[in-house]
Structure to design on (181 residues):
C-alpha cells in the first residue's frame, strides 16, 4: 500500500448493537496541487552579417524578448537560443551571451554562461549553434528585456580582427517562464 491508498473509514454502528447494518464509508484523502503558472514566449530575431576585418570587441544583438513576471511566485525562466552560422573563408571566434535589462536599470546585466563558437580554419561552411540558459534571480513583479548578443573575440593575440566573413541567420530565442515551487 502506498501513500495514495491510505483510506479513512468511519462506521455509524456501535459495537453493542449486533444486528445493525453497519456500512463503512471509505474515502481517499484528496490532495490538491497548487497551480503552477507557465508561459511560453518567442522573441524577435534578426540576421547579422559579420564582414571581413571586423574588429575584436564588436557586438551584434541577435534576438530580444520582453518578459513580464507580474503575478508569478518565485519565477524562473529557461531560455533556448538557436541559429545558423555560415562562414565564407572565415577564421572567427564569437562569444554568445544573454543580457537582461529590467525596469530602473541603467545597463544590461549578463545572465548565465558565455557560449563560444570558433572557426579556426579559413573554410566556407555552415554550422547550427544552440544553447540554453536559466534566470531564476527575478523579482515577481519585474518587466525585463532579454537580449542575445554575439561578440567578436580575439582569434590569436596578434590578430584583432576577423578573417573572412560570417552570417548568423535563422535565429530563434524562446523562453519558458514558470513558477519555481
Amino acid at each position: 500500500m502506498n501513500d495514495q491508498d491510505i483510506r479513512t473509514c468511519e462506521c455509524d454502528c456501535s459495537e453493542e448493537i449486533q444486528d445493525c447494518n453497519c456500512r463503512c464509508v471509505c474515502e481517499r484523502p484528496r490532495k490538491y496541487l497548487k497551480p503552477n503558472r507557465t508561459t511560453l514566449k518567442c522573441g524577435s530575431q534578426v540576421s547579422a552579417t559579420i564582414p571581413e576585418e571586423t574588429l575584436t570587441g564588436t557586438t551584434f544583438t541577435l534576438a530580444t524578448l520582453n518578459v513580464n513576471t507580474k503575478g508569478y511566485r518565485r519565477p524562473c525562466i529557461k531560455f533556448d537560443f538557436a541559429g545558423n552560422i555560415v562562414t565564407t573563408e572565415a577564421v572567427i571566434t564569437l562569444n554568445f551571451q544573454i543580457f537582461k535589462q529590467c525596469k530602473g536599470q541603467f545597463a544590461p546585466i549578463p545572465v548565465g554562461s558565455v557560449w563560444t563558437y570558433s572557426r579556426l580554419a579559413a573554410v566556407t561552411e555552415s554550422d547550427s549553434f544552440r544553447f540554453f540558459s536559466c534566470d531564476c534571480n527575478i523579482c515577481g513583479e519585474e518587466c525585463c528585456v532579454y537580449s542575445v548578443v554575439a561578440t567578436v573575440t580575439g582569434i590569436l593575440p596578434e590578430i584583432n580582427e576577423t578573417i573572412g566573413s560570417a552570417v548568423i541567420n535563422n535565429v530563434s530565442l524562446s523562453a519558458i517562464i514558470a513558477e519555481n515551487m
Notes: The longest strand covers residues 75-102. The beta strands are 8-11, 24-27, 38-42, 44-45, 48-50, 59-68, 75-102, 109-135, 143-152, 163-179.
